[in-house]
Amino acid sequence: MADVRAYRAALVHCLDDPAKAGEEAVVWHPDGLLLVEDGHVADCGDWTALSPHLAADTPVEHLPGRILTPGFVDTHIHFPQIDMIAAFSGQLLDWLEEKTFPAERVFADRAHADDAARAFLDELLRNGTTTAMVFGSVHRASVDALFEAALARNMRLIAGKSLMDHGPEGLADTAASSRAETESLIADWSRRGRLGYAVTPRFALSSSREQLAAAGEILHAHGHVWLQTHLAESPQEVAQVAEAFRESKDYLDVYDQFGLVTDRSVFAHCIHMTPRSLDRMAEAGAAIAHCPTSNLFLGSGLFDLAEADRHGVKTALGTDVGAGTSFSMLTTAAAACNVAQMHGSPLDPLRAFYLATLGGARALGLEDRIGSFAAGREADFVALDPAATPLLARRLYGVRDIREILFALMVLGDDRVVTRTWLAGRSAHSRD
Ligand SMILES: [Zn+2]
Questions:
Q1: In the predicted model, is pLDDT for residue 87 greater than 90?
Q2: At the topology level of CATH, where does 72-327 sit?
Q3: What is the Cα–Cα distance from 408 to 353, expressed in whole angstroms?
Q4: 323-369, pLDDT tens digit by residue?
Q5: Which of 82, 260, 332, 413 could join 255 via S-S bond, C-beta 3.0 to 4.6 A?
Q6: Separation of 214 CA from ligand 1 center, angstroms?
Q7: Range(s) of the chain covered by CATH 2.30.40.10
Q8: 208 with 178: CB under 8 angstroms?
């Protein structure tokens, strides 16, 4: 017997990028119906059109005043930084040395990692994030802990152990140990439940050439794994990379020389890019994880989304906790709008919503699984309360325009507006 459930509420989702396909790509049903069968979306549309066709015994949950959206997709976040978010320091390289590396050292301990993994996944779900691409620490225990916790929740999660043989004491692996551990983690976890593995060189300065070469070999040996790393985040970092890799055309080319620029590769930040490297990313089908709250927090720079668009590079959003200042993809989308304003290229809130949902799925190559309410997608979705705070309730009273509603939710909302989160059709977080 199929497990069929129907939800009646307002619904919004994207079928395409509204920057390319126009605003019709954003589907809005003020009184909608979402039909879920065995953890997948079976149908979605207007309540009046679809409800007469429901089988008489289908349970219908009515959620008046709620807006259902696909679960948010966070394409860049660091699990072992959960406990050092909001740590004051200097810019990127100082912040790493003073705040980040000490916090990551404790993830060698499995019991600590298990405790943090529960809190980390709870926090993602409280914020309506149902898929994330996650950096573990250098320690295999951190990744084992995170995958075990995500598997138990049937959550779609991509993660990997940081590769950093040039890392500081207590956080350095070797090219040989990192290859063995990565291969072992892939064998243990990749494609179990909804888990995926990402080969994870931390950034160019943290790895030897031997380690980067091994990362490329592993990536190409397993067609089902991803690559995640950082690229062109801060001017100081870019200068140091140019010094350390004099043979490379630019920062992206360092990764390219080791076979790391592919359509399964996600590069965080990409603020200080050459036109050549943006063209090369577009050609390869690689994606950018734009992390605006982090970039503002560390003073790294202002990512230029319009420029990435002109070069045809796929872009999505990442929180980059703990340099990022919020787990909320709504807050992150609002920050992306603010950063775009600084370039004089306003980001339409409908597009920002796309970037946080279907755009994230596309960056990960998972658009046939998640990111929208198209039939057959996994039923990862959230319920938002547009009256979650007194100010939102006043601001959105009587508002029916979905662009206006989404923008107010981004600017004024955060985890407080997420009342429920479902994973594969099962409630995984609720505050109702
Ligand atoms: Zn990062």
A1: yes
A2: TIM Barrel (3.20.20)
A3: 12
A4: 999 999 999 999 999 999 999 999 999 999 999 999 999 999 999 99
A5: 260
A6: 21
A7: 4-71+372-430
A8: no
Alpha carbon of 280 to ligand 1 centroid (Å): 22
pLDDT above 70: percentage of residues in the chain: 100
Q: Are 130 and 423 in contact (CB under 8 A)?
A: yes
Ligand 1 geometric centre to CA of 20 (Å): 28
**CA of residue 136 to ligand 1 center, whole Å:** 11
**Lateral strand order in the sheet of 381-384:** 40-46, 26-37, 4-14, 60-70, 381-384, 418-423, 426-430
Angle value at C-alpha 231, between 227 and 232, nearest 5 degrees: 175
CATH number of 4-71+372-430: 2.30.40.10
The pTM score is 0.98
Centroid of ligand 1 to alpha carbon of 320 (angstroms): 5
Give distance in angstroms: CA of 230 to centre of ligand 1: 6
Q: How far is the CA of 296 from the centre of ligand 1 (A)?
A: 13
pLDDT at position 49 is 97
Backbone angles phi, psi at 275, to 5 degrees: -55, -35
Cα–Cα dist 278/286, whole Å: 10
Taking the centre of ligand 1 as the mean of its atom positions, its distance from the CA of residue 394, in whole angstroms, is 36
State in Å: Cα 29 to ligand 1 middle. 36
Residue spans in the chain of domains classed CATH 3.20.20.140: 72-327
Kindly give the distance from the C-alpha atom of residue 406 to the centroid of ligand 1, in angstroms, as a whole number: 26
The CA-CA-CA angle for residues 165, 216, 183, to 5°, reads: 70
Residue 109 Cα, ligand 1 centroid: separation in angstroms? 22
User: Are 346 and 337 within 8 A, CB to CB?
Assistant: yes
Task: Collapse the DSSP code of 407 into the 3-class scheme (helix H, G, I; strand E, B; otherwise coil) and give the result.
Answer: helix
> How would you classify the pairing of strands 418-423 and 381-384?
antiparallel
Cα of 340 from ligand 1 centre, angstroms:
20
Query: What pLDDT score does 298 carry?
Result: 95
78 Cα: distance to centroid of ligand 1 (angstroms): 6
Assess whether the previous peptide bond of 71 is cis (omega < 30° from 0).
no
